[in-house]
Fold:
Amino acid sequence: MVATLMAGCSSVGSLRNSKPTAAYEGSGSVGDIASCISGAWGSKPVHLVSYQEYTGTSIEIHQTEDGPAVALVDIKPVSARTVATYYSNFDEDDSWYFQEVERCVDTTLPHE
Structure:
């Protein structure tokens, strides 16, 4: 189990150390954008892991329950905006995933 956890950490670390696939900026809250992305991605046959962090929320995509992360999005407040940065190591076309990140960032409205 420790090896699995370490593999997960190293895959996430290597994803974050790579060039982001896409980054989007919007005015919705971190929580609302994360909820939108989780709902969209959850419609696919992948395993999602979400982490609430001091700096925002991260959502990871794993192809299997115990497999390494193949993509993730970090959603963080930056000044008066919210930035969602998508990193990927998919071995297939994952454009739907980052297009859903863009859709969620663009359509999630700020709280009045």
Summary: The chain has one domain: 2-107. The helical segments are 2-17, 30-41, 95-107. The chain has a mean pLDDT of 87. The beta strands are 22-26, 47-53, 56-62, 69-78, 81-88.
